[in-house]
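User: Second chain of the day. Same drill as before.
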Amino acid sequence: MEQSQTLRRVSVAFVFIAYCLCFCSAAAIPAPPLLGVHPLDERYFDSQLIKCKDGSNWFSRDRLNDNFCDCLDGTDEPGTSACPRARFYCRNLGSRPQFLFSSRVNDNICDCCDGSDEYDSSITCPNTCVMGGNIEYKPHVKSATTSYLNSIGKKESRVGGRLEDMIQNLKGLKLLAIFQLAIIGLVLALRMFRRRFKSRNRRHRLRDLP
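Assistant: Same format as last time:
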């Protein structure tokens, strides 16, 4: 009886550990980027109560990109066409990022080379970002200077875009590999424990035989 109870406890412990690993791996996966928001502006939307950049209003985080314009400058709708003054940011990894007028979001025309501006339209835009490049960006600034764009080397920019893609892919692969190894280890340990438990039972039975 004591051995069977011990086996049950160990099994429950293994299940609990596996559940914790699943939860931790899910928590470790980075959250997807905010739609239409430049990476340098993402921290601006971290709080639960957010102020419009022009100071005209406040809005809660659950009203971000809800397709209803709360801010006159469109701070709350960077990823929709609800606010006429809003701007949509195309990441265009592997090519040149750009800002679009909100009226061009989900208008059934592919404006971003990565197709992100038509996420909820009736067409599917292929990813055609092949040029490589990047644009210097500062919050509240909508475009970079021409002199800076001319100084960027095409080859260096292309490598930078590819490296960013590779880093994101490697992060996901590492998490998946760690999780798979942990599950395999748990299964092997449980099998070894069961074998030892069975061998002990056999020994006890042989000893009890007259």
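The first strand starts at residue 49 and ends at 51.

User: Great, on to the next one.
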